[in-house]
Design goal:
single chain; alpha/beta; TIM Barrel; 8-stranded parallel beta barrel; 8 strands; binds phosphoenolpyruvate
Length: 256
């Protein structure tokens, strides 16, 4: 695992102010688990309230618009989420790609907007079950990654995290084998090195996402080139999310 694993909770379209107590509990526990970088991406409406609660954890958004401002009813710009306290944006999540028809090109320009607003990007990639069954998963994911990285991005170690999230593993309770995760993460690493060179490409953390929970976290986080996890369902309570954070911290304590 990476020097400092990164565990990020994606609350998706879940959470009202009643959930701030969960964020507070996660933040307080993270203060004693400093070996792990912990972050939450609540819905837009909770970014500022969670930011106000957070003394330790990072706070981010789940998406942003590609433009700065203007006539886009219902949309939120990168500058707006940064102003609310977001330090990063999750982009290219498969639910955005599927529900909103987001293309690689759009994800890439959204990423440029996020960087321009001073935020980091967590870029999601992942194949469908059909693509995996056809033996084309690595090819698909590496092409998706290349086409989704913002063109202006030139300091990947500071600005970019990649999340490998096979679509068929999201919210299903199914996960790839540790070997399959390792193989995909190595392919992603090779793509990053090709794009950014040995040094820059080697420093980007690659998260695994898809049905991570406190019971399987240890095994999944130990897979080759896994630098942390992007967690959906299991991030909605402090108890289950912290189970994953603790698993990451324990792995850090293990001799290499
Ligand atoms: C996600 O959608 O980012 C995710 C990983 O979801 P889950 O953990 O619920 O599979």
């Amino acid at each position: 695992m990476a020097e400092r694993p990164y565990i990020v909770g994606n609350w998706k379209m879940n959470g009202t102010r009643a959930m701030l107590s969960q964020a507070r509990a996660i933040d307080r526990a993270a203060q004693n688990l400093m070996k792990v970088e912990v972050a939450l991406a609540p819905p837009y409406t909770l970014i500022h309230p969670v930011h106000r609660e957070a003394e330790q954890i990072g706070v981010g958004a789940q998406d942003c618009h590609a433009g700065n401002e203007g006539a886009h009813t219902g949309d939120i710009s990168a500058g707006m989420v940064a102003d609310a306290g977001a330090k990063f944006v999750i982009l290219g999540h498969s639910e955005r790609r599927q529900d909103h028809g987001e293309s690689n090109a759009l994800v890439s320009v959204k990423g440029a907007a996020a960087l321009e607003a001073g935020m980091r990007v967590i870029l999601c990639v992942g194949e469908s079950e059909e693509t995996r069954d056809a033996g084309k998963a690595e090819n698909f994911v590496t092409r998706q990654l290349k086409a989704s990285i913002p063109e202006s991005l030139d300091n990947p170690e500071e600005s970019l995290t990649v999340a490998y999230e096979p679509i068929w593993a999201i919210g299903t309770g199914r996960t790839p084998t540790v070997d399959d995760i390792g193989a995909m993460h190595r392919a992603i690493r090779a793509t990053l090195v090709e794009r950014f060179g040995e040094e820059g490409g080697a420093q980007v953390r690659i998260l695994y996402g898809g049905s991570v929970n406190p019971d399987n976290a240890r095994e999944l986080l130990a897979a080759d080139e896994v630098g942390g996890a992007l967690v959906g369902g299991a991030s909605l309570t402090a108890e289950s999310f912290l189970g994953i954070v603790i698993a990451a911290a324990e792995l850090q304590d293990q001799p290499a």
